[in-house]
Amino acid sequence: MTRVRSLFLRLTLFYLVVTGAVVGFVSLFPSMTNYMPIGGAQTLLSAQSGDPFQGIGIGATQVGNLAQSIVWLFVAVCGAVLTTLPVTWVYMASRSRTEYDQALVETMIVLPIAVTAIVVMVHNSLALAFSLAGIVGGVRFRNTLKSSGDAIYILLATGIGLAAGIGALEIALVMTVLFNFTFAFLWVADYGGLTGTHRYLRPNNVHLEEEAEDDPQGRDQSGEGGGPRS
Questions:
Q1: Whole-structure pTM value
Q2: Helices H, strands E: what count in the chain?
Q3: What distances in angstroms separate CA 80 from CA 45, 93, 157, 194, one per listed residue?
């Protein structure tokens, strides 16, 4: 349970520090509010139904030249990465050694960067959107996940990139805060668990890993050699 308490503490401190840093920075430099990729949620929620093929307005009306465009995109990408970072902490803390996938952690970090940039490019062009679909179909990118539950992390990272790309980073923030703390609470409560069943958020995984680390010979309870139990 020490790892669980540490995770809760890290998540809470992270959100408090980042929020305080952003508020303090904007207070010192009020002009930077023009380059904040936020406010898109209000536009999406208040928009009336119309042409489904109409482009999405990002709302960066104060961006008027190349330098300002680069600043806006840089802030959006950095915001997406910062929002994704605590999600990787939840994954690393809740996975056993046999289920842990470092490639997935790295993918969660870089995926929002790519998605943010792609959304900015295609958000107002149906032709570019279809072109992108054709390119992705040609590349045929595939990644085998070790656990079916890992797919939710890829989905979340994609959602963060989408939110940042349309200037609605507040959606990504609310989504990840609720995701991280809900997952952490499910881990602590072991919600839905049954005796003898496999649970990839099971706290006992931590104890099994500690036992394996304490036994350098990799022996099981019967004294015979073998790998660490999962």
A1: 0.75
A2: 8, 0
A3: 21, 21, 9, 37
How many Å separate Cα 215 from the centre of its chain?
35
The one-letter amino acid code at 187 reads W
In whole angstroms, give the CA distance from residue 178 to residue 182.
6
Question: How far apart are alpha carbons 40 and 70 in whole angstroms?
Answer: 19
Q: 49-58, 112-121, 150-159, 209-218: which range is least confident on average?
A: 209-218
HSE of 177, CA atoms in CB hemisphere, 13 A:
13
pLDDT tens string 159-193: 898 888 888 888 999 999 999 999 888 877 777 76
CB atoms within 10 A of CB 219: 12
* Size of the chain, expressed as the number of residues it contains: 230
Q: How does residue 208 score in pLDDT terms, banded at 50, 70 and 90?
A: very low
Which one-letter amino acid corresponds to residue 160?
Answer: I
How many CB atoms lie under 10 A from the CB of residue 19?
A: 11
H helices present in 63-168, as ranges: 66-94, 102-122, 126-139, 151-165
DSSP codes of every residue in 140-199: T-----SSGGGHHHHHHHHHHHHHHHTT-HHHHHHHHHHHHHHHHHHHHHTTT--TTS--
Q: Distance between CA 75 and CA 34 in Å, rounded?
A: 11
Q: How many CB atoms lie within 10 A of CB 203?
A: 16
If we measure between CA atoms, which residue out of 195, 161, 156 comes closest to residue 177?
Answer: 156
For 225, the 3-state DSSP assignment is: strand
Cα three-residue angle 180-210-107, rounded to 5 degrees: 40
